[in-house]
Every structure is written in C-alpha cells, then in structure tokens.
Amino acid sequence: xxxxxxxxxxxxxxxxxxxxxxxxxxxxxxxxxxxxxxxxxxxxxxxxxxxxxxxxxxxxxxxxxxxxxxxxxxxxxxxxxxxxxxxxxxxxxxxxxxxxxxxxxxxxxxxxxxxxxxxxxxxxxxxxxxxxxxxxxxxxxxxxxxxxxxxxxxxxxxxxxxxxxxxxxxxxxx
Amino acid sequence: xxxxxxxxxxxxxxxxxxxxxxxxxxxxxxxxxxxxxxxxxxxxxxxxxxxxxxxxxxxxxxxxxxxxxxxxxxxxxxxxxxxxxxxxxxxxxxxxxxxxxxxxxxxxxxxxxxxxxxxxxxxxxxxxxxxxxxxxxxxxxxxxxxxxxxxxxxxxxxxxxxxxxxxxxxxxxxxxxxxxxxxxxxxxxxxxxxxxxxxxxxxxxxxxxxxxxxxxxxxxxxxxxxxxxxxxxxxxxxxxxxxxxxxxxxxxxxxxxxxxxxxxxxxxxxxxxxxxxxx
Lengths: 174, 279
Prior knowledge:
Chain A is an alpha/beta fold. Helix content of chain A is 21%, strand content 27%.
C-alpha cells in the first residue's frame, strides 16, 4: 500500500501492525546526538530548528553523498537508543517514527497515547533505501556530522508497521 | 630484510576501506541465498531486500550499510619486513583517513567516549598485529557497525559451568540484545584466555568464512549445536520471525586460568563486511 506522509500524520488510525507500506513525502533524520540536543533545547526553551508538530522522524545517520548523488547510504539505526527521548518527542507532536528493532513498553504506551505509529525498515540495506530518497537537505546541527538533521523527500520507502496507534506491538505479539 | 614504503600499505588500506564497504564477501552472499529458501512471507521479503541491496551497493559503489563501522584491522606482519619511512600504525591510520574521506564513507568515531567529538576521518583504527615468519604483510579489514557491536557481551563463568554454562550465555546474548543487531547474524564465540584476550578471539572468530568447519572436531560439533539452537529461537531476519536467526557460529578458544572460564560473544550483523590484502 502506498501512503503519503502528509496524509498519514493527520490520521494514523487506519494503519495496523504488520502492514507493509511504501511511504512517500517528507521525513527528518535524527538519531542519538540530535535527539539529545533537541531535548536540551526544549528544556531551556530555545527555538528548535524544525517544528516537531505532525512530522516523521527517521533514525538514520547517512553516509555523505558522492558527487552527483542525492544522498549516500541511509538505512535505519537501532531505535532502542532513542527510547528515553521518545515520549517527550511524541508529546511535542511527532507522529511517525522510523527505525529498526523493538521499543520499551513506555514507548509503546506513548505511541498509543499520542496516536503515533512506529515503522521498521530493514537494517543493513542502506544502498537500496538510498534509491528511495529523491531530495536531501541539511537542516540543522551540521557540526554533528552524520548525526545532523536532514530533510529527506522519499518516494516509496518500504516500511512495516511495527507499533500501531492502538499500541499493538509486532515484537511481542504471538 | 624486505624494505617497503608506508605509502604502499596506506594505499592498500585505502582501497580495502572502499571495497569492503561496497562489496559483500561471496561466502556471505552465498549463505544468504541458501537461507532464503527456508523462509516465507516477511522473512523472505527481508532476504530479498538484503540480496538486492548487495547488488545495488556493488554496481553503484554505495556502502552496503550507512554504518561503515569502526575500522578493525588484523595484521600478520612478516618479521622480515621493514617499513623504512614510518610504522604500520601510522600507515594503516592514514589509509583509513584517506579511504573514508575519499570514498564518502561515514565517519563514526568520536575522540572521547564522554565528550563525543567526531574525529571526522574515522580514525583511529583498532589495529591488532601478529608477528609471523616471512616477508609479507597480510592485512584483514573488518569494519564493524555500532549496532551489532553494542549487542556483544562478555562474562566470566566459573569452570564448573562448563559447556552448558557457555551455551546458556551465548543463547541469552543472542535472544536479548542480538535481536536488535540486524539478524541474520554471525556469532563469534571466544572461550578461555582472560578478560582481555577472550573478547579479541571472539572477534577474530568473525573472520572465518561461512560454512568453514572448525579444525577441532569437538568445537565443530559445538558450533553446529549452537547454530541449530539459535535458529530455533524464531527471532528471524530483522527479528520479525523466521527460521534464520544466524548464518554461522564460530568458536575460538585459548588456554585459561584454573579458576576461570571466560566467554565472549561477538555479534556480527548480516552485513558481514571483511576483506584481506597481502602485500
């Protein structure tokens, strides 16, 4: 099923855990260091470089683009490292999370409370995923190198719904 | 004595960095293709993505995984080799710096574990040197992603725990943190030595080719036993269920203290990148 990110952030109810989708639209990369910095900025009431309301976040630290390429290899990183930050990020309005691997019960509950969705992409297929990125812009935290925030425009990025807005979790069900 | 310039080593390492990150070893690809027939549904789809990724990466020279790793080098340095304008550590690190910058590989190393400032050229590398006879240098590169490395673990068992204790620990590591490390996995198990050496032999175990048999019959059987038990865990590709949780288990052992039974488990993701050059 092909889905547009801009539609999905407004209504996540129809997606069910286990569904395979092809996502198109805007997603922002953010991994460990970017999460930490976002939370620190929120705590000190600083203005964020991106508006978190109704966006998709992709746990990814890409390789640099070769000359002429949109982006380098860009597969998902392990989501659990972001678990401690995620409830706060979701409270700020992020609706879609993309990464790999299981999440804590606290994150599952937070996804449910905020009508969000967590998707998994296949880890270690970063060249394949790079082909779905049609545009990539560096948005913030350039000093973090691969951990900077990039705005990706993706087309038909292959994902699996791992935790839906009802809190159904692919990693713990039967 | 054979004299060589450090540039020769540096250039070889630069080339290794690129090739290893773009091209999956043939034995790993073969094992993936053999395992796909055991899978259906999502597990099969994931295998198909993995195999397609190998093709795209090699054809277009794009890294197989965005995590182009911490750079591990296992060097067999012939004792009749003399590097007359530097040393092996300098030459390898310079090769890594050039290799990662010139090939747009990800720079994933921070200079201090707490301050966490990126060194911007993926140095320093981990360089392990064995002095051997002869006048050649054999360099094996193992770029290791952080996700799978984080899933690795070490435990000091009591000798009374025996093989059963070793096995229980390996299975618990795979069943817990190994799930998040991009299965199907390759598992390196170190047994014996001490706290420091057991980790290293578990990592060296990852250099073996898939389907290669342990030279010691007892350990060859233990490897099969562990692989069989791991693949019964139904973790499957990307931990979404299936018959293939691991492609191989490799055991390395060494003598140990009468009071000790150290065990280390090095977890390698399916993107098992390694390459060797002989100079």
